[in-house]
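Researcher: Structure for this, please.
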Amino acid sequence: MSVLVDDDTRVVVQGITGGEGKFHAGQMLEYGTNVVAGAVPGKGGQEVHGVPVYDTVNEAVEEEDADASVVFVPPAFAGDAMFEALDTDLDLVVAITEGVPTQDMARVKRRLEETDTHLIGPNCPGLITPGEAKLGILPGNIFASGDVGLVSRSGTLTYQVVDNLTKRGIGQTTAIGIGGDPIIGTSFIDALELFENDPDTKAIAM
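Model: Predicted structure, token format:
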């Protein structure tokens, strides 16, 4: 099993027509992630990597039955992008963007508390369930499926610890980079609770 993402997760990429969004959407698709839509205001009707683009997250969710989104939106607009995602029925929002103004995140955090959505990030590498799906910028090739959950504030340390685990034959259920900003959606405690409730996670690296 896993937490938050698996091969059934249907993903919207917010900002898919931008450089970062386009590149990492391609990497996610290559890994096998079920990227079903993009969402960019004013870009509805386009396609990126064969994925349909919609003007709003809500449209993308309704048309493609999506349940997660990844935010590759510049810092000045990332708060609004997260708000837009939180106004839908998405189970999970992963905000990769670095440098989101703290004031914007304070507002997002208040809104998050009114929803049942899990928010990972911002300023994070995302999360991955090895062999099933990755949401974000994690290098999929260093991960292996197994029974250790991983949670980290640091992207680079996530890769280092995972690489060490994998080289020793220790695979992972899910690895979560929660992000290093002062205000983030998911804390260590939140992540530990998710792993605690996953019967297939036997140990956690933090």
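Researcher: Any notable elements?
Model: The helical segments are 19-31, 57-64, 75-86, 102-112, 155-167, 188-196. The mean pLDDT is 97.
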